[in-house]
Amino acid sequence: MASQILPLELIDRCIGSRIWVVMKGDREFTGKLLGFDDFVNMVLEDVTEYEMTPEGRKTTKLAQTLLNGNNICMLIPGSAGPEES
Amino acid sequence: MDDNTPPPPPPEENSPPPAPSSHTGSPTDFLKGVVGKRVIVRLTSGVDYQGVLSCLDGYMNIALEQTEEHVNGVVTNRYGDAFIRGNNVLYISAAEPI
Amino acid sequence: MDASSTGIQEPFDLIRLSLSERVFVKLRGDRQLSGVLHAYDGHMNLILSDVEETIMIVDVDEEVQPGAQRTVNVAKRKMDMLFVRGDGVILVSPPSRT
């Protein structure tokens, strides 16, 4: 029997580790995942926000943050984010 | 293969006991922790609102007190109270320890 | 001053307490309104009277001085009575409660 795993179960296993969040627009976040809900609203800690602008990449450091799930496009578990790749 | 995995219903209930602190974990816990605290609310447009979080609802509609509006790092407005419609909210970030 | 001392349990309470008062409304598309609030609903559809609308029109004159020269045109107009569709609302600020 093929093991059936739900997408959000994978994200559940990322709780406590760092995650890279790519938004629908030109914006990305990295941080330690503390939790999330059914809308994929996410609580992150030690957050870096990356804003891709024509002038280059702008970063903002944030403490504990609730990210609205509405504009999330992709989640990359265990990644340090755009700095890494 | 993989027949030794735990039964479906509660996969990871046996791991750690519930953390005693109230400010970790789910979005709901986070929000309980930040009500009454200074927060930064960033809208999808990039505009920031810094103020004291009075309350919010399930749509992420937000009531803020002593609010400053920041555009590109510059204060552009101040409001005693402000209602922010939730669909515009990108994130709510704690601006003081919770 | 916390939420319990101001009688606000949910964000819409801010709006309810502003009925018949002059409010400031920020809308998508760089529009701002100031008017007397007569009615609202859960979508944040609004009925305002005695309204002044301010539209910010920013022209960036790249050819004159690259990136530097900006002219902001502000257009204003008045309306007696206005319905505002809720999905355009970003922020509502009631008059100061002090």
Termini gap of chain C = 12 Å
For the largest beta-sheet of chain A, the strand count, sense and barrel status come to:
6 strands, antiparallel
Overall body shape of chain C: elongated
The helix-and-strand class of chain A reads mainly beta
Which structural class fits the helix and strand makeup of chain C?
mainly beta
Number of helical elements of chain A = 1
**Number of DSSP helices of chain C?**
2
Q: Enumerate the spans of chain C where pLDDT stays under 50 for 5 or more consecutive residues.
A: none
Shape of chain A from CA axes? Answer: globular
Contiguous low-pLDDT stretches of chain A (5 residues minimum) are: none
Instruction: Please indicate the percent range of residues of chain C in DSSP E strands (runs of 2 or more).
Output: over 45%
In N-to-C order, the SSE pattern of chain A is HEEEEEE
Number of strands of chain C: 5
Q: Specify the helix fraction band of chain C.
A: 10-25%
How much is the radius of gyration of chain C in Å? 17 Å
Largest interface: A-B, 24 and 29 residues
Give the overall pLDDT of chain C as a whole number. Answer: 84
